Every structure is written in structure tokens, then in C-alpha cells.
Amino acid sequence: MRIGILGLGRIGAFHAGTLAGLDVVEELVVSDPVAAAAQAAGEKFGATVADSPEAVFASGIDGVVITAATDAHPGLILAAVEAGVPVFCEKPVAKTVEESLTVLQAVRESGIEAQIGFNRRFDAGCVAAREAVLSGELGALHTVRSTTLDPAPPPAAYVAVSGGIFRDCAVHDFDVVRWVTGREVVEVYATGGNKGADYIKEAGDVDTASALLTFDDGTIGVISNTRHNARGYDVRLEVHGMQDSIAAGLDTQLPLRSAEPGVTFPSGVPHTFFMDRFAPAYRAELTAFTEVVAGTRTSPCTVADALEASWIAEAATLSVAEHRPVRLEELRKEAP
Question: What is the mean pLDDT of residues 158-181?
Fold first, then answer.
């Protein structure tokens, strides 16, 4: 199959390398507003370089991967829908919920498959945790914890357009706890603070945050995030039930030191980068997209799924601003 890639920044170039290594992908057609980036990808991966998204769609691609800037996501998804091409787009669907709702309606009406990039759904540990929940071996759930601790904050320019830590970072935690538990969040109470980079506070954001989620069956979710985890990139998931508990992310490269005498775990070099921690998950995610393109499966993470994570992020953002619990139904009623 022929796959288009729109956007050849860090993650776009990474995805190009992954796709080029898949046997089912015969050709890549790439484009980026920065011509040098597209040309570099073309030379490195043997891809065909197009001078615009329109040229990519006109080239006869079977599917398209969108890794452009967030502001471009809605327009490019809609362009894929209009072209009748299955689309993979990195999160978020759009910068605002209103735009996401417009995209959702268009995708639903078109019948075109759209997959949104929440890679933790393809992490082996998270998959095993979900299977443990579905099998019933954990019993009734009472608590789920998800952690994303970045080793250092992103640049000021990125923070200024990120939408905040809940929309940019914690949204991965929100998606994975919803997916693993199979339950919907009904209420959020969140808090946050600033201990590091001044530019994060100046942007109206926090650099460390926590959110308590209440699910529709009474399960409690605990989400923890920070931009300052000097030991490395720490992503973990715990699921606790009445009969057993399970965790993802407890590998030898866990960026944490044990204070217990004689304990050497974890013994490996700590994870420091998300592409390192989730390389196998990204490969599995894009392999799934090729199956979507081939028509052998439906989207494993739909626009509707992504919108649910965004609602939780919106509720957390409002909760911090107003220092109160926020029911998701409040936000849904306000949406057009």
C-alpha cells in the first residue's frame, strides 16, 4: 500500500521510519511546509516528496498519517475524509472541543475510518492490564492510577500553544484509564502548581498536576503528571481490583530508586524519552493503521474516543481554574 505522511517534524520523521520498515507499505508520499524536512525524509526513507497536502492526496495514496502542527489537524482530517482516504492523526483531533465536534460529525457522516494516535493502547503492559480487567481476574475495580512524569519541560514556544498540561500531557492518562477500565468518567477534581520554569506559569499553565476521576461505576482514578522528573521519563499504570492488582511500566528501566535495603530493582538505565519508552507501541499502532487501511479492522481509537479524553482534560483544566469538582455533563451541555 501507499501511505502519505503530512508533517515531518520529530514524530513525523519517526513514524516515517516505522512505516518504511513495515512489509505492507510499498511507498511513502511525504510533505511538509518546510521543504528541507520533506526532502530529508524522502532521501532517508526512499519516499516520494510532494509539495503540498493536495499533491499527496492526488498521488493515489491508500491512507494518510497526519503529524502536522495541531492547528492543521482538523483541516487535514477533513481533507482526508473528502478524498475518501483512511486517516491516522496524532492527538489531539483539534485545538478546541468545538472543532473536534465538527470533525467528529464529518467523519461519522462520511463512513471513512479515522484513527487517533493514543499509543498507550498498544503498549504491551497496558494491553495486558486491559485483558486482566476484561477477563474478570482482578474482580470489581476500585482504583486505577496513571502516571506521566516528563524528565524536563518542553520549550516555551511549545507550552504557549499546547493548551496546558491536561490537554497536552495528561490526556494520554485520561484515554488509557478509560480504555483499560471500560468505564466513563463522570466527575473530575484537579489541582496543580509551579515549581520550575517561569515561562510555564506565565503561559497560565502548571508544571505539576494531579487529578481525581470518578467513574460511572464508582471506581476512582488517580492521575499524576509533572514536567520535572530529573530521573527520567516515567509512565506507569496500576489497576487495583477486589481480587488482584496489576501494573504496567514496572520494567528494569523504570526511572525510580528503591529506598529498601538490598533491593536492586530497577537495575537498568532509566527511560529518558517517550520514543524510547514506547517504540514497540508506536510500531504496533501504525501496524494497526495499515490493517485499517486494508479494511481488515475498524479504527482502534476513534475520533469519538479522542473526544472523550478531551472532555476529561477540559474538566480538569476548569477544575484547577475554579478550585472545584467539575461534572462532565456540565461541559457537554455547554457544547454546541
Answer: 95
